[in-house]
Amino acid sequence: MEKVAFHVETTRMVGDIYAPHGPGKFPAVAIVGPMTYQKEQSPSEYAIRLAKMGFVALAYDSRYRGESGGEPRAWENPFHKVADLKAAIAFLKSRSEVDEDRVSILAICQGSSIALRAAAELNGVRALATLAGHYRDIEGDIEWLTQDGYVARKVQGEKAKAKFEETGEVDYIRAIDQTNSDVGMPGYFVWEWYKPWANRGLWTDLYAVMSDADLLNFESISAAKSLTTPWLMMHGDNCFLPSAARRHMEAVPRSTKTKSLWNDTPHLDYYDLEDTLDRAANEAAQWFRSA
């Protein structure tokens, strides 16, 4: 593994590159993780596996989290994440060991909506693979948060962002809680997965309230409608918002090469279950090679 840095405008981004041994130019993959992710979580798991299969794999921290720069911290801004992913792809293409014509994207959970936007807006992305994607449209957001919750969070987020822009003060809440819904990512199953990372000091249990002003104004369905990059979706009825996943795949132009692997794998198994990690990484590698 090699620690690397690249920039988005003036912000320093930090990532870990896992690469095959030996000379030559290799295909490459930029990996973007779930909402509030840090690279040491599922992105690194996939990067390690893809490197063993012959890819230069980059797991990086998006702005405002982990080792990457940017203020305020714990700001969940999907528009900035799209720019971060584009910069990660450009960085990979600049590397001497990378075949710049074979750079792809792997995305997990809400990183999938980020990846769809980046792949639709960029030229030269070889292929896209998304795992247990949290795909973003208004119907999905309301199913996720309920109508009242969606409106309340959006209003609260816009108020907090206006406060930040006027005074520089940032309102924070916790990112997770097992029972309290007034957090960034409510729900017991989310808390159960992330809490051990927080306990070990490897993930920050913090969420800038103003994030919701950006998060809830972001969607990926329009990107699906214009996508020309070959797309592999791994999802199922035990993953988050399967109805939103179906809507996004159905929105893709028929001329675009797509493949959907629909099975019973639980959502969080794609994050850290060894057998699922191995299977998903292998499917993604085959897709990237054949695209």
Give an overview in words.
The chain has one domain (2-136, 219-290): Rossmann fold (3-Layer(aba) Sandwich), CATH 3.40.50.1820. The protein has helices at residues 42-52, 78-94, 111-121, 138-145, 147-167, 188-199, 211-215, 221-226, 242-251, 269-272, 274-290; strands at residues 2-8, 11-18, 26-32, 56-60, 98-108, 128-131, 172-173, 176-177, 185-186, 207-208, 231-235, 258-262. The strands form 3 sheets. Strands 1-2-4-3-5-6-11-12 form an 8-stranded mixed sheet, with helices on both faces. It has a two-stranded antiparallel ribbon with strand order 7-10. α4 (138-145) crosses α5. It is built from 11 helices and 12 strands. With 291 residues, the chain is α/β, with parallel strands linked by helices. β3, α1 (42-52) and β4 (56-60) form a beta-alpha-beta unit. The longest helix is centred in the middle third of the chain and has 21 residues, at 147-167. The model has no long low-confidence stretch (mean pLDDT 97).
